[in-house]
């Protein structure tokens, strides 16, 4: 799932990521890492729908196996998804729409470089997390907890 909240800047049109998923029935989740943070941010530029944000951000596209949209080659993890539904949530206090797009993962790409002993290594991956506002975080402390039963 992802949340393409708001409008295209200066319009009442839905963001491209929402429109594309609903119209094509497919989308790709590309995990953003600390290394990709600046290029990810560049894709947030408000540009006409005819502009390829990936190309503008110097992100090379790679073909997917099961869906038509491309994935980001530099992303160490990409999930090919079929669109299931959009859940419309209450608008913000300023009237900006909020929604959640839900999909089903049907294909997974994981770069060999982020695998250690057959498992995804979070320390190698350094995933970027969106906190809100303009704030982000990386994961740098990983620990396990045994289940009580």
From TrEMBL:
Coiled-coil ranges (or none): none
Gene3D superfamilies: Electron Transport, Fmn-binding Protein, Chain A
Domain Flavin reductase like span(s) in chain numbering: 12-115
InterPro entries per the UniProt record, alphabetical: Flavin_Rdtase-like_dom, Split_barrel_FMN-bd
Domain of life: Bacteria
GO molecular function: FMN binding; oxidoreductase activity, acting on the CH-NH group of donors, NAD or NADP as acceptor
Protein name stated in the entry: Flavin reductase like domain-containing protein
Lineage: Bacteria, Pseudomonadati, Nitrospinota/Tectimicrobiota group, Candidatus Tectimicrobiota, Candidatus Entotheonellia
């Amino acid at each position: 799932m992802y949340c393409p909240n708001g409008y295209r800047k200066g319009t009442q049109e839905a963001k491209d990521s929402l429109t594309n998923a609903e119209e094509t029935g497919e989308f790709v989740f590309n995990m953003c890492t600390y290394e990709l943070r600046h290029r990810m941010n560049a894709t947030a530029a408000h540009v006409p729908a005819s502009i390829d944000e990936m190309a503008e951000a110097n992100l090379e596209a790679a073909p997917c196996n099961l869906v038509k949209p491309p994935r980001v080659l530099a992303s160490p993890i990409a999930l090919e998804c079929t669109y299931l539904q959009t859940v419309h949530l209450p608008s913000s206090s300023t009237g900006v729409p909020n929604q959640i797009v839900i999909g089903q993962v049907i294909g997974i790409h994981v770069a060999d470089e982020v695998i250690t002993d057959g498992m995804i290594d979070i320390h190698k991956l350094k995933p970027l997390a969106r906190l809100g506002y303009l704030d982000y975080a990386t994961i740098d402390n990983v620990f396990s907890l045994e289940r009580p039963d």
